[in-house]
Specification:
Lipocalin, Lipocalin family protein, single chain, alpha+beta
Length: 156
């Protein structure tokens, strides 16, 4: 009987925590990153406002910090002709398919103290993550066709 109770407790504790893949991803994402470049799935000139905040040219070169133990972070835009400053957010990584390595990544803007400023959040796909590089993708519909925005980060 004691073994059955211990087994049930062990399974319960394992079920409550995130998967090993997500835990490993949180360890890798921790730290400081630079958003090195943003690309689109189709060629052409597009006027895209990312995260309801700024243009592609403002975001390229921005610095990002992720603190996974409390799921918070901050990015800083410091380019001329852009609204410079720090932006705070909370994030979550949700596993989609462990075999493909694709995850849902939810980023939600907050104030400096971590309080949500709006009910808005941005769902992105975390499509690549290594010790030195990370890629997010967001697919939207433009002219009834899928249009993918890829954001490529480098760890600093």
């Amino acid at each position: 009987m004691k073994r059955v109770i211990l087994l049930v407790l062990a399974v319960t504790f394992m079920a409550c925590g995130g998967s090993k893949t997500i835990r490993d991803s949180r360890k890798v994402i921790k730290g400081n990153w630079t958003l090195s470049d943003i690309s689109y799935s189709k060629s052409g000139q597009y006027n895209v406002t990312l995260l309801d905040d700024a243009s592609k040219s403002c975001f390229e070169g921005s610095t990002w910090q992720f603190i996974p133990n409390n799921n918070t972070g901050m990015y800083s835009i410091n380019k001329y002709a852009c609204e410079a400053g720090d932006r705070h957010f909370i994030f979550t990584i949700d596993e989609i398919d462990e075999t493909t390595g694709l995850y849902d990544f939810l980023l939600k803007p907050t104030d400096e103290k971590g309080k949500s400023q709006t009910n808005k959040g941005f769902r992105l796909s975390l499509t690549a993550l290594s010790d030195s590089q990370m890629q997010w993708q967001q697919t939207v519909i433009v002219d009834n066709q899928p249009f993918t925005i890829s954001m490529n980060f480098k760890k600093i």
